[in-house]
Every structure is written in structure tokens, then in C-alpha cells.
Amino acid sequence: MDKSKIVDELAAIVGREWVISDADELIVYECDGMTYLDKAVPDVVVLPDTTEQVAAVVKVCDREGLAVVPRGAGTGLSGGALPLKGGVMIGLNRMNRILEIDLPNQRAVVEPGLVNIALTQAVRDHGYFFAPDPASQTASSIGGNVAENAGGPHCLKYGATTMHILGLELVLSSGEIVQVGGKTLDVPGYDLTGLFVGSEGTFGICTKVIVRLVRQPEAVQTLLASFRGIEEASEVVSTIIAAGIIPSALELMDRHIIRALEEWLHIGYHEGAGAVLLIELDGPAAEIAAQARGIEGICRTQGVLDLRNAKDDQERALLWKGRKGAAAAVGRITHEYYLQDGVVPRTKLPYVLREIEAIGRRYDFLIANVFHAGDGNLHPLICFDSRREGELQRAIAAGAEIMKLCLSVGGSITGEHGIGMEKIDFMPLMYSPDDLDAMRKVRNAFDRTQRCNPGKLLPTSKSCVETSVAYRPHRIEREGLAQRY
Amino acid sequence: MTPDLLAARLAGIVGQEHVLAQERCAQYAVDGKAPTAAVFPATVEEISKVMRLASSERLSVVPWGSGTKISFGGIPERVDLLVGLARFNRVIEHEPADLTVTIQGGALLREVQAYLGQRGQFLPLDPPLAARATIGGILATNASGPRRLLYGAARDLLIGLRVVHADGTATRGGAKVVKNVSGYDMPKLYIGSLGTLGIIVEATFRIYPLPAVERTWVASFPDGEGASSAVAEMLAAPIVPSSLELLSSPAAQSVARLAGLSLPQGHVALASSVGSVAEAVDAQLGQIKRISERNGAGGGFLLEGDAQERFRTAISEFMPGERNGRVGAVLKASVVISKVLEAVRRGEEIARAVGLQSFAICEAGSGIVRLHWTNNAGEPGVAVEVMAKAIEALRDSIVREGGNLVVMSAPPALKAAVDVWGPVGKALPLMQELKQQFDPHRILNPGRFVGGI
Ligand SMILES: Cc1cc2nc3c(=O)[nH]c(=O)nc-3n(C[C@H](O)[C@H](O)[C@H](O)COP(=O)(O)OP(=O)(O)OC[C@H]3O[C@@H](n4cnc5c(N)ncnc54)[C@H](O)[C@@H]3O)c2cc1C
Fold first, then answer.
1. How is chain B split into domains, by residue range?
2. pTM check: above 0.90
3. Per CATH, which fold does B213-316 belong to?
4. Which partner for A66 in A61, A284, A369, B331 could form a disulfide, CB atoms 3.0-4.6 Å apart?
5. Where does ligand 1 bind, in terms of residues with CB under 6 Å?
């Protein structure tokens, strides 16, 4: 292809200032939130402003046989926005308008580049919110949330992004614009909206999103329960769920996190605490009062050291500040960390956490745990130092063991961060070749050309499970800087 | 293949006693088309073999749960083989403390609820005709009911499934954990697909604890406006009803009669349920009553226990047409919440103009309007063409407002005269492509889905 001609053509569609093709400037787009594996630079980045521009750009790509890689805020943690085969990256940041807010019908229509938190900010004073609350919500885009089916602490009660998406406008790989779903429920036909959510950019680009807005609860109560160790805490988690209490959030932090946070933010955790549970209840005041009593009873009979009840919004904010700062706090005590994301049945948490600790010992890594305990969604942070030879590879190997552990108890290899390129080789461990073929068929139906975000989510061949588990060589291996062992 | 040979081949797979041939399967007719054979496999392997046979012989297949919604969808092009799931009726795995359950596709919802109920839990699906519906059938038709307001519908509850495809391949999608984004969200593909992509043999759901207390306040309003503005106020208030059912006055009278209540003639009814601990239920019902009264409610009934159950059953089993031996049509309109009353009114006007009566049962907080159109007691039925036109007219007005209208149930003659699904717009080629990918020979329920899929 003649790159400069294509650049000119794209510039004619979106305007010269919204096309990036300089090698220096393209570097910004070489990776997303997953920084430790491969990097890849697109040939061109285009920043369109309208659906029609997106469609026109995609048509050029279609004609030229170029890969199309959508990108929201680039906070994805599985390498979803890496342009592995080059091509044209379509950045959706300029398409960040709120097109409609319809409170009586509990709906909003937004563009995909809108930052998650901005929607809640726009409706907060009217008593509503947009429920999906990934920790990245001040940065990540709603389009990215759709593509990843993002979760967050409160999806224990409110469900992941998919439950809040009712309709989409899509630009398919042919450049055709299609509406799926709508403001109403149960639009006839296959649930294309539901299929698109979580498709990680491999079905096309979403250019409009119809979302559900949720009424704010009458009351909120936030508790912090301290336990001697992670086992006690995780047993309390399953007892709470088994008792039929579904908090709006139920988060667990282990002793490494507590120590790191205490040194940094001085939250004031109980001295003997080897694990804390952050428990939030929301709903009608009388209901959460009863739930709080139930939880207190459970904690007391299961050896709670201390049960703190946030008196006011300020104390609630402090307790959440700890939770939200957890990963950053770990960042202060280690050179870097590899954040894993897996899910296990809630009853298996005590066993799985013990095993993760054992993996840490085997690999000689500190593994800190801060996670969405209420839905069994683990986030082990494997602390390592890539300056030491082989550590990155060992960290990745330890991560692989954790994924296998999750699968061995009937869980999943990712609860919210997606497959992207990071976990593509692990798909055959979770799904049979036929299961994966069924997914391929869906992919083919949406994008026969396979040019939408190529190399993501689905392993390309029915490769043998054992060999595919091994990670592809990392950049530093290819460059001969490090060896795997 | 001759019918005898087909029966013999099927018997070879599942055993003689689980095959019905020719006239013995007349009861399994779909829109008057009876299958040549009906087969009742017991294992996934058996279903796979049956499907491989069907596939190689290009036999069209109707998956069959219990038949409660078999009149849903377009008239099938062909009906050769019925695959019944009656023997797929077990709960496979239930870990109460994980709040998940895995059930076979042919299990009766009623039996699943009884099983879970003993452990204080339930699957919050309450579709029409819930008493006889099977899990697979509920999923394939995306059937939902009043409690969807709080708990969501199948798409919000199904987390994993196992499906046998047209070529006999059995696959799993999703997982048994409540949170999972590994690969495409395959369970979504089959929900509401009406058996056109595969046979659902197993499903895993997130389930919920039964609320400690559940009560329903049935308020009667002299007019729809009052009830409708009460709904709007309730939705804007920080209360969490599990259902808000709006019944038009004829529907309210029928349901009240079945439930043993007496409502003033000509009044519409609004039934609001709340489930929680007793204090929270009472506090919220207090607010609901105040909102109702402020909007002109003329009184009401507090239901719980058996009385509440009777009321729910009356809604779930609602079938006014059967009273005088003539079933009209059941329509389901989906509209934005604020347009529910308008849809009810349009339905009444258009029905009245052609001499039909319209009974509306609405999930008012979800924008679902179920209309039962039937002839007036004692009067002759309305010509099929007239009824088809009326349905199209109603659909037009609803589609104009951004909604949709589907014919849920109608006699074959009427189905032949009207598109039961309505338009699906530019998304149709994508849907056709999905069908092509999964069932290239179109053997699964051909012709019954949108756009003739
Ligand atoms: C500090 C931090 C905390 C995080 N916390 C959470 C968390 O709590 N929960 C959680 O789920 N995730 C979390 N994440 C991950 C990430 O924020 C989410 O996956 C988020 O949804 C990605 O949004 P984005 O706009 O950054 O998307 P990007 O990273 O830009 O893209 C992600 C994927 O979506 C595709 N995509 C983007 N926009 C579109 C579009 N319009 N149409 C089609 N495809 C598109 C891309 O091609 C890519 O495959 C966190 C990340 C960070 C860095």
C-alpha cells in the first residue's frame, strides 16, 4: 500500500489534524494498560468525530485490506487495544458526547468515547447513576467498558456492564452502520447487543451506546471488618452470600495490602488485621439495617477482630480510599507487579487463596490479594522486578498457575479484564476446540474479514493445549536480553 | 428415508420406547404440522446422534420442552422430527452457598423452584404459563414475567449453558461462576433464539435467596392516567419493588375473579410487590400506598401467602380467550416505560374498532405490554385478514415510538396473514449470517424466527 496516499485519504475524511502517522507520535499508541508484554505500533491513528467518519475510515481499510483496531482510553489490561498487525487505529476519544438523557425511561444515549464517570456525574443530581464502576472509571471510556464487559466493585449487586447496555450503533468491517437493540427491552431477533458486549473490538466499532440508568439507593452503609487472616475473611464472604445477603460490594484485602496502605495512606486499620473485608450495603434503609445486623452476627461468630461502621460520607470515603489505592500502594513496595484476574466459585475462596500463597512460595514472589470477593473475582498482584534476570517470565508462569488453579475449581480465567492478547493461549484450557469453534462462528458472522482487531480473544488455530500455554516470547527474549527457564 | 426406517434408526439411538412415530405424535403438531417422528433422548450423546442423523438426512427438527410456547414464532416451513427434552429433567449441580445452579434443559421450572425453595432460594424467572414451562423453553423464547423488574430476565441470570448444534456438536458457553468475560458471551446467543441455533441441554444460572417476606399491594384506579403516573413516581422514588403490574380494566376484572378479589368495575389495577425483611417491606408498601392514593387510587388489597400466589397464578395463566372457546391472539409490545399506557390505549382502540376486546397485562416498570385480543363474549370471531390488519396498525404506531410488537400466540391462519415478529431492520443480515454459521442447512425450526430464519 502507499501509506501517504492512504493518510491523505483519511485526512480528507476526518481532517488533517486528526490523523497521526509520525513514528514519534505513534509511540503513544504502542500499548494500553498492559505494559509488560508485547508492544505494537499502528501504521496510522485516526480520531474521527462522527459515526459517518468512522464508517468512511473503515471503508478505506476494507478496500485496502488493513486491520482496524478501535481504542477508547487505552486502559485495557489484557492488551486488547494493541495493533498486533498494524493497520489503522481508530481512537474514539473525540466522540464523547452525551446525546440524550431520558430519566423517566431510565435511559441515556452516549457516544463511546465518553469517560465512564462523566455519565454518573451528569445524572447524579437527579438521583441516578450509571452502575458499571470499574476502578478505572475516571479514565476508561464507555465504549471500552462495552467492549470488555467491564466490571467493578458494585457489580456484585448491579451486574457487569452487559446488564446495563440495551442498544448499540455499530460500524461493521464493511463500513456499514447497523443499529442493534434499542431503548426498549426484548428487541426481536438474536441478542446482537448482548453478543457485542465483551467482544473486545473484534466485531466492529460501536459508535453509540444506549445505557440503563439506575436509581440511587435510599441509604448506603459501609463496614470494615478486620480478621486475623485471609482464611477467616474469605470464609465470612461465603457465609454472607450463603445467608442470602447480597451486599452492593464485598471486597477483600490481605495483609500485604493492609501493610502497604497503612504505610502510605494511614487508613487506621486494626493492628492485628491480617485481612479486611470492605462491605457496602445499599437499598431501602430498613433493609440494609437488617442486613448489617446479619453481617455483624456472622462476623462476630467467625472471629472478627474489629468491625468498623462508617459514620458519615467522609469515613466512607476514607475506607474506599484504601480499597481504591490498594494497587498503587503495592506499586510502592515492589518494582512492578503482574495483576492477574481470575474467578472462582465463592465457596472455593479459602482453598484457592491458600493455594495462591503456596504458588507465591514456590516461585518466591510476594503475591498480594485485593479483590472482588463477593463474586469470587480474584486479583492477585504478583510482585516482581524485571531488572532481575528471568523474573518477568517467572511472574508470568506464576500467573499461569493461578489461572489453572481457577479452572481446576470450575472458575474462569478472567472476570473483567478480558482475554485480549494476554490470555489468548489460555482459552483452550477453558474451552474445548468445539466450544472455540462456536465462538469463531459468531466472529465470522460479524466480521468475515477478521480484520477487526486481529489476533485478539480467539486463538487462531486449534493448537495443542500444552504448547499453547507457554507464553509467546517476550520482546526482551527476542532481543536476546533474557532467557526463559 | 421412510417413516418406518426413520423410527427404526431413532430407536437404535434411544431405544424403541422413547420414539413415537407418525399418528402417535399428532399431539406434537406445530401450527397444525405434525412431525413424522418424535424422539426423547436421555443423554447429550443421544441428542448429538439424533442431530447427526437429522443433519445428514436434512430432516427439520423442532426442539420441544413442554409445548407451552410452541405457538410462538412463525409457521414452520417443515416439521419432520421432534426432539423432546422430557428426559432432560434433572438439577445437575446446586451449591447453595455459591448461589448458582445447573439444570437440564427439559426440567420444569416448577420443579426447579420446589427444589431450590427447600433451600430458601429461587430462580427469579416467572414467565407466562410458568407452571408447565421448561428451562430450555423459557430460554429459547426469552420468556419473562413481573419480577424481571428487580431480578432481570434470562439474559441477566443465565451464566453458562450447554447446547447441541444442528450437526450434533455439543458445546459449552459461559461458565459456572457469576462473573466471567473469557471469550464471547455465548449464552446470549441462544436466549430468545427459538431453537433455531441449537438445542439447550443444560443451563447454569445465578439464583437468589427467597425474600423473608413478600407482599403485594393491589390498588385500583378509576383511570389509567392515575395508575400510570403512580408508576412513574414509584420508579423515581428510592423504593425497590420486585414487580409493578398494570392491568387494564377488563384484565383486572378477569384476574380479580380468578384470584378471588373484587375490584370496582371499570377500574384499572396496579399490583406492586415488595420482597425483603418485614420492616423494609412494610415501609416500602407504605410509600407505595401513599403514592397510589396521591394519584387517585380508590383503595386496594394487601396480598401475601396463598392469596398472593393465587393472584400471581391468575396473571401467569391469563388466557381470556379460552373462556368462550375461541382464542384470539396474544401480543407483546415492548415500549419505553413512559409509553405503556399509550400502548394499552392504542391496543384497546384498534381492537374495539374491529370488534375485539383487548385485555392488557403490563410489566409497567419494564415497558412490557401483553395484550390478549379476543372476540367479545357471545359474538362470532373476527376475520383473519381484519385481525391481521389491526395487528399491523398497532405495530406501526408502536414502532413509530421506538418500540416493537411480537405476536406471541395466534391460530395458524392468523400467523399466515401477519409477520409475527415485525421488522428487524438492518440487523437482519447479521442474524441470517449467524444462522448460516450454525445451521447452514436450516434444519432447526426453519421459518419460525425473524425474517423467515
Ligand atoms: C488502574 C486500572 C484499573 C482498572 N480497573 C478495572 C476494573 O475495576 N474493572 C474492569 O473491568 N476493568 C478495569 N480496568 C481495565 C480497563 O479500564 C477496562 O477494561 C476498560 O473497560 C477499558 O476501557 P478503555 O476505554 O480504556 O478501552 P481500551 O483499553 O482503549 O480498549 C479496550 C478494548 O476495547 C476495544 N474498544 C475500545 N473502544 C471500542 C469501541 N468503541 N468499539 C469497539 N471496541 C472498542 C479495544 O479495541 C480493546 O480491545 C482497569 C484498568 C486500569 C488501568
1. 3-84, 91-209, 213-316, 320-417
2. yes
3. Alpha-Beta Plaits (3.30.70)
4. A61
5. A 32-33, 69-77, 80-81, 92, 112, 134-136, 140-141, 143-145, 147-148, 150-152, 200-201, 205-206, 416-417, 453
